[in-house]
Amino acid sequence: MLLKNDVLRARVRLLGAFLGEAISRQSGEDTLRTIETLRKGFIQERREHNPAHKQQLIDLIASLDNQTLKNVIRAFSIYFFLANLTEENYLREQRRTMRAQSNQSWEGSFRRTLLECRERQIEPAQIKELIDHLKFIPVFTAHPTEARRRTTMNILQTLYEHTDAMSDYPEGSLAFMQAKQKTAETIDLLWSSDEVRSRKPLVYDEINNGLHYFDASLFTAIPKVYRNIKDAIVDIYPELIDYPLPAFVSFGSWIGGDRDGNPFVTHETTEMAVLMHANTVLRHYQVLVRKLRRELIHSDTIVDIAPEIYTRIKDYSTLDKKVFCYNPDDYNNEPYRRLLSIILAKIKATNQHIQSQGTDKEAAQEAYSTPTALLDDLRLIRKSVNTHDKAHGEGLLLDTIRLVKTCGFHLAALDIRQDSGYHGEVIADIFASASNLPDYHTLSETERQQWLTRLLEKPGAPLIYTDNLSAQTHEQLALMNSVAKLRKLVGDDTFGSYVISMTNNASQLLEVLLLMRFAGLSGIDKNGHLFSALPVAPLFETIEDLKNIDKIMPMVLDNPLYRELLEHSGNIQEIMLGYSDSSKDGGIITSAWQLYSAQQTITDIANQYGITTRLFHGRGGSVSRGGGSTHQAIAAQPAGTLHGQIKFTEQGEVLYAKYANPDTAVFELTMGITGALKASSSRFVEQPKQLDSYEALFADLADAGEQQYRELTDNTEGFYQFYSEATPVQEISLLNIGSRPAHRKKGLPSKSTIRAIPWVFGWSLARFTLPAWYGVGSALDSVKKDEALMKEMNKNWPFFNVFISNIEMAFTKSEMNIARAYSQLCKDESLREQVMQAVIDEHELTHAGLNSLLEQASLLSNQQELAHSLEWRNAYLDPINYIQIELLKRMRQPDNASDDKLENNERLAIEDALIRSINALAAGLRNTG
Predict the structure, then answer these.
(1) Would you name the residues annotated as active-site residues?
(2) Which of 135, 344, 134, 123 is nearest to 240 (CA)?
């Protein structure tokens, strides 16, 4: 937050005052007094540390009952909601002011980026080529680190609109006072509603939450993005005024398709997700067509309408009669409105056809067969309108066309993801059920590839005895049939890729192709070539797997059948890189280095085999999971690795931060797209002259960092007991946050059983933020003699500069005083002292190393706005952390080990307060998972 800005601070204070009034009115003065005592007390503690005073605050927390603690947490949580919303609104105003000044633009804007292209002498034809090859694909995933309800998101959306209205009018004016009153009323409503779920979310809830962002912002933002880039092109490259923009943005989703480790995602869930996607987008098209019908009121008695319009109405004569049965002469002289009424009926029929899964025969006859058919009708209208009314032809009508090009009938392509081991078990079961196939478990990797290739070369699927198949195999085959059915029903773009987690052998790609064969999703076409309806994308996650890409991918590409498949499907191989597990496995530095090296290796392999690769980045919100500025992260990719196409996951609280409001969504999409444009142009991505020296030094840093990280996480006996007791990770899996289990197996978590998201989340909540920086201090110290070269790297190598900047930000969020307090939850004193000493030593090394490298006296000296934001937030985070520690103590008391000894209502009250503390910390820290 830009706390030096008086306007912003005043707005936050105003909303905070409204919140205080709501609390006082609804929960009483005593509750407000307690909240204020803790708020002011911890602010004072930050300004002037006083151990006795701090202990008084901790004692006060311990004396409060669960209901009061719940109210205190809610107050701070909602305060963070309000502060974040105010900051977002203020930043939007700043951008709007810059846009109003035609000579001003911000880093990453379309205008600034295209001006930089001009300065680098990138010609119009080259710009056109860059955009023609551009594919920008954000993929929404259900990895929530906030338990925020859709109801709460809707209230915050309303609140955003009211606060926006306040900033639009002079203070004291009638309009300002009305907006102010509505703001206060909405905050009152926010306090009286429940911001977290009272039950564990179903996959349905997670799908619904993902769809919220389309209704709330993206349906508005997507056309604006296209319009903004077109305006910038016309301004900076007037030679391209007639250039028709391609649909370079598309969206993906894993919600309802990602079954890796989530037993609640079944083939029925996947069907539900696709139907919900289609319903959302087709209902929105109906809204747009109704608006167009109100706009395009041109009468053929006054303007000339293209004859093709009347012909198209006649083509739909049967439906025309049905639509206008109440009055056959309606809109007779307004042919656009007549045709739009028919289009509206066809869109409704399309949705009915899809929702009935093809059983409604009447709807099937009236429905559009493909999105292209809908586009043909809309383009026909636009072509005619442009002959007499360019403004309306290039307005909402063009926006609607661009939205349909982007979203089709599927809205967002649903990726399917499953673990490679799961497929192996299914294939082994199938082999065991076929009399002419060997025992798959006993085959070597080479033999597996040979058998799978032999089966794929044949036109049909193996004959198997389905009665003998396991439930797991039946579910996998049912999934394949569902995918095939839904592609026919909704369209070819309904599904994205089939992602194989933990890929470590070439046979694992062939296994999925064979499984597709049972539903006709792969096979031999009429020309004798192997085809696959879904591209198969290997996911390389662990450090070992990333290192072995140069062995695995050539093995796949040397398979003649697979090469033939690529050659007849655009010659594009998608490869996913896992930031989360690689960081959890080997630490942040070696993860960054291996991901960087992997991209270079993939590019070299692609060049060797004459294919194009699309890299799919499995990024999270936290720095240890690839988070940070999307624009900078994309623009700093290794030279020559992007090729205009980038796909990346959007997770957790990042979804809300980026896509809760239309203007913010436009900004975030713009920043990502311009990052991709820069990374795709050799004029922007210039190799530093000393790159070989830089890479060699980074490799040394990675080795030293990994050694230190593994010493703690792999070689410290009892480390995972410490982690389990000193962080809320045990409780995360019990709370109503996500449908997916936090652990792969029950029992004490370990590096192999704990999932990457709760791994990061647990450390973040306890303010260690350990995965984001542990090992960095030792790494920097190990190459102290080369510090001059490191400083040069930081100035000249964007990849290293972005990496260090993100580390500095995440490291600044660590709070050792808070972490020490959490560590007291670990019962083994010897273990506690051992781990904490290692953490504190590494923390001190990292602090000194970063400041020395960046030539600064204190952290974030060169990022003052961020420094002030974190400084302000810490004073409000402190009470939540100490309350959470108290709740964890209550939850874990020996007498509370079973419901027999602890009243169930009290346990539920503690759990309720705990989940709210997690929600509050996530809102305050902002990138936790």
Answers:
(1) 143, 584
(2) 123
